[in-house]
Design brief:
Elements: E1 11-22, E2 31-42, E3 46-50, H1 57-64, E4 72-77, E5 80-81, E6 90-93, H2 105-116, H3 120-133, H4 149-162, E7 167-171, H5 179-195, E8 199-203, H6 207-213, E9 216-220, E10 227-232, H7 247-267
Helix pairs in contact: 2-3, 2-4, 3-4, 6-7
The chain binds adenosine-5'-triphosphate and magnesium ion (MG).
Magnesium ion (MG) is lined by residues 57-58, 95, 171.
């Protein structure tokens, strides 16, 4: 989707001066997690968030999802002020898939719909459809502990998709998947974007995944994070694997790497023997 000609009524998520810290100032465990962040995310857009470990990406996602009350600022989702979870508007795929271990995969999916208030008559169809989408039909009656890490992540994705919300928050949803499955699911997500006007905020550490999926990529600085730069990808969905070999893809990926490199250096530095090993 092109980011030109966007109007205010097409804004799905509006972040107004959100900043957050954990613990009281003066306390040894006080952490400034996120610097003041302001940004609009449009309907039908996939915004990728990328930045060094600990820079506040999950914190920002938790604020948007209504799971964390920010120290400063606020967020509007679909025109409503966020002050708690909004199960009709927002589905969340967590960094650690949050499946109930004592429920089977299909029970986990049904429970999500139950909490959201989806009519019981729709549960079976939606559960089957979303299980099919992530290739877990045969594992519907398995417990999370009987699945591999990647399968659990796909199950968490199925649960979020079954809710059919206008906004999807995804925190490194494909992090535990092998590269091939990750690419195929990325293609599927791009098809989903081309078919619906879902708004997706997607945290990733993969430069390639960010460029392949995103309409815009917000690059964070090191902690306390702030949005250092926003890069437009400007390529129609659904994107094909051939996009990954295009000159534009390589150029954007390199641009992202340059922006991130210095920020990551502020966080980690094994090479300098700074740690004394
Ligand atoms: N519940 C919490 N209590 C105290 N500090 C926290 C809490 N959650 C996060 N933090 C701190 O806030 C900072 C940002 O954390 P956050 O989880 O947002 O980072 P992130 O960008 O998602 O990192 P990663 O890429 O490693 O997932 C970190 O320094 C972390 O230690
Ligand atoms: Mg995180």
């Amino acid at each position: 989707m092109s980011m030109q000609n966007q109007t205010v009524d097409q804004v799905a998520v509006s972040i107004h001066g959100v900043a957050h810290h954990f613990g009281e100032s003066g306390d040894a465990k006080h952490v400034k997690a996120l610097q003041e962040t302001t940004m609009d995310i449009y309907r039908g857009e996939l915004l990728a968030l990328i930045g060094p470990s600990g820079c506040g990406k999950s914190t920002l996602l938790n604020v948007i999802g209504g799971l964390l009350n920010p120290a400063q600022g606020h967020v509007d989702v679909c025109g409503k002020r966020v002050d708690g979870p909004m199960p009709h508007e927002i589905a969340y795929v967590f960094q650690e898939n949050a499946l109930f271990p004592w429920n089977t995969i299909i029970e986990n999916i049904r429970l999500g719909m139950l909490f959201q208030g989806v009519a019981k008559s729709e549960h079976e169809d939606r559960a089957q459809q979303s299980l099919k989408a992530v290739g877990l039909m045969e594992f519907a009656n398995h417990y999370p502990g009987q699945l591999s890490g990647g399968m659990r992540q796909r199950a968490a994705l199925a649960r979020a998709l079954s809710l059919d919300t206008p906004v999807l928050l995804m925190d490194e949803p494909f992090g535990a998947l092998d590269e091939q499955t990750r690419m195929v699911l990325g293609e599927d997500l791009s098809v989903l974007l081309s078919r619906t006007r879902k708004t997706i905020i997607f945290v990733t550490h993969s430069l390639g995944e960010a460029v392949f999926l995103a309409d815009r990529v917000a690059v964070f600085s090191a902690r306390p994070g702030r949005i250092k730069q926003v890069i437009n990808v400007d390529e129609a969905h659904p994107r094909k694997p051939s996009f990954m070999t295009a000159e534009k893809f390589t150029r954007l990926r390199n641009e992202l790497y340059d922006l991130l490199h210095d920020e990551i250096r502020k966080t980690v530095d094994l090479g300098s023997r700074g740690g004394g090993f």
